[in-house]
Automatic annotation (TrEMBL):
<keyword id="KW-0092">Biotin</keyword>
<dbReference type="InterPro" id="IPR036388">
    <property type="entry name" value="WH-like_DNA-bd_sf"/>
</dbReference>
<keyword id="KW-0436">Ligase</keyword>
<feature type="domain" description="BPL/LPL catalytic">
    <location>
        <begin position="69"/>
        <end position="260"/>
    </location>
</feature>
<comment type="similarity">
    <text>Belongs to the biotin--protein ligase family.</text>
</comment>
<dbReference type="InterPro" id="IPR008988">
    <property type="entry name" value="Transcriptional_repressor_C"/>
</dbReference>
<dbReference type="InterPro" id="IPR045864">
    <property type="entry name" value="aa-tRNA-synth_II/BPL/LPL"/>
</dbReference>
<protein>
    <recommendedName>
        <fullName>Bifunctional ligase/repressor BirA</fullName>
        <ecNumber>6.3.4.15</ecNumber>
    </recommendedName>
</protein>
<dbReference type="Pfam" id="PF03099">
    <property type="entry name" value="BPL_LplA_LipB"/>
</dbReference>
<feature type="binding site">
    <location>
        <position position="187"/>
    </location>
    <ligand>
        <name>biotin</name>
    </ligand>
</feature>
<feature type="binding site">
    <location>
        <position position="116"/>
    </location>
    <ligand>
        <name>biotin</name>
    </ligand>
</feature>
<keyword id="KW-0804">Transcription</keyword>
<dbReference type="Pfam" id="PF02237">
    <property type="entry name" value="BPL_C"/>
</dbReference>
<dbReference type="InterPro" id="IPR013196">
    <property type="entry name" value="HTH_11"/>
</dbReference>
<keyword id="KW-0238">DNA-binding</keyword>
<dbReference type="InterPro" id="IPR030855">
    <property type="entry name" value="Bifunct_BirA"/>
</dbReference>
<dbReference type="InterPro" id="IPR004408">
    <property type="entry name" value="Biotin_CoA_COase_ligase"/>
</dbReference>
Length: 323
């Protein structure tokens, strides 16, 4: 048992209340001296814990740090986010998640970090991931679906992100096909889905998620200032990252379980409801060609349907979309 994590869980069960050393030592299965030592360690980690003789310990403030203990304390899921690999600074969470997945990390494992020095988007594009002000994470899932359906996981993740942003900030985001979350006309979050498969069998997917949480306008570099925003800028309040990640995991698990049981239909409907793309005139560039037309909707597999000026409909599988 991880004693620090048990103590944090106990504090979360009784917010604002004193918990006696005796009660903590019983629920953690260790001596009161061991509890005292772990409380000292928590203080070193930035937790403010009040200790009062006869009353016990009370949590006054937790640090704004993405630790495995904090994410798991009070998390209402049975597998998404139940294993967390938390880092301070990494090049990118994607290769770390691939490595963990190839060594057998369970479905739902989350790799999170405070900072990425080489964060990336699709086609190797850079993803700006400054320290402390974002949520940079990679989720491992192992769905039993054919390869052709894996792009649906990006759409599912975008729906879950849009819902979570709405629930946690009250700001209404839109999804730009296939992987961008927009508020107004600026990007607040992006999804990068990577796949490991053999013939038609999916071994695992790594879903990379970048969310601009607490960046201020000054934190956004000039080359991104016209296209990027953050939840803090849009909602006018700092975001509590831990509750956000927990809500994301809970929403993801609910949506994903429903998808595995019932199929893509609900994701398609919700995606269309939150869509920035549908109804717009867009230009789509693939390696082979450039198409112009109106985005009509998704087909039942999640492929974007585009109608050109002659009324002809085209299926867009994977491409860059300009507006
Ligand atoms: C994406 O790519 O939007 C996917 C981003 C995924 C990032 C996560 S963070 C955790 C995990 N680890 C990683 O290394 N990556 C994943 P794409 O659609 O290709 O968009 C990339 C483009 O977005 C760049 O070319 C910039 O124009 C822009 N951009 C870069 N950083 C941004 C930011 N922080 N906010 C908004 N836009 C950004």
């Amino acid at each position: 048992m991880n004693i620090k994590e048990e103590i944090i869980k106990a504090f979360h069960r009784k917010p604002g209340e004193f918990i006696s050393g005796e009660e903590l030592s019983q629920s953690c299965g260790c001596s009161r001296t061991a509890i005292w030592k772990h409380i000292e360690e928590l203080r070193k980690d930035g937790y403010e814990v009040e200790a009062v003789r006869k009353s016990g310990y009370r949590l006054l403030a937790a640090p704004d740090r993405l630790s495995a203990e904090e994410v798991r304390a009070g998390l209402g899921t049975y597998r998404i986010g139940q294993k967390v690999l938390a880092h301070d600074s990494v090049i990118s969470t994607q290769p770390l998640a691939h490595e963990a997945a190839s060594k057998g990390a369970p479905e739902g494992t989350l790799v999170i970090t405070e900072q990425q020095t080489g964060g990336r988007g699709r086609l190797g594009r850079p993803w700006h991931s400054p320290k402390g002000s974002g949520i940079w994470m990679s989720l491992i899932i192992r769905p039993e679906i054919p390869l052709s359906k894996t792009p649906q996981m990006t759409l599912l993740t975008a729906v879950v992100l849009a819902k979570t942003i709405w629930e946690e900030t009250g700001v209404g985001p839109k999804i730009k096909w296939p992987n961008d979350i927009f508020i107004g006309d600026k990007k607040v979050s992006g999804v990068l889905t990577e796949l490991n498969a053999e013939s038609d069998r999916v071994n695992y997917l790594v879903i990379g998620i970048g969310i601009n949480a607490n960046m201020t306008s000054e934190d956004i570099p000039p080359e991104l200032s016209a296209i990027a925003t953050s939840l803090r800028i849009e909602s006018g309040k700092p975001l509590k990252r831990i509750p956000f990640i927990q809500r994301f995991c809970e929403n993801f698990e609910a949506e994903y379980d429903h998808y595995l049981r019932e199929g893509f239909e609900r994701v398609k409907m919700e995606w269309e409801q939150h869509s920035y793309t549908i109804g717009r005139w867009i230009t789509v560039s693939t390696i082979q060609q450039t198409l112009e037309g109106k985005a009509i909707g998704l087909d039942e597999e999640g492929v974007l349907i585009l109608e050109d000026t002659t009324g002809k409909r085209h299926k867009v599988y994977s491409a860059d979309v300009n507006y």
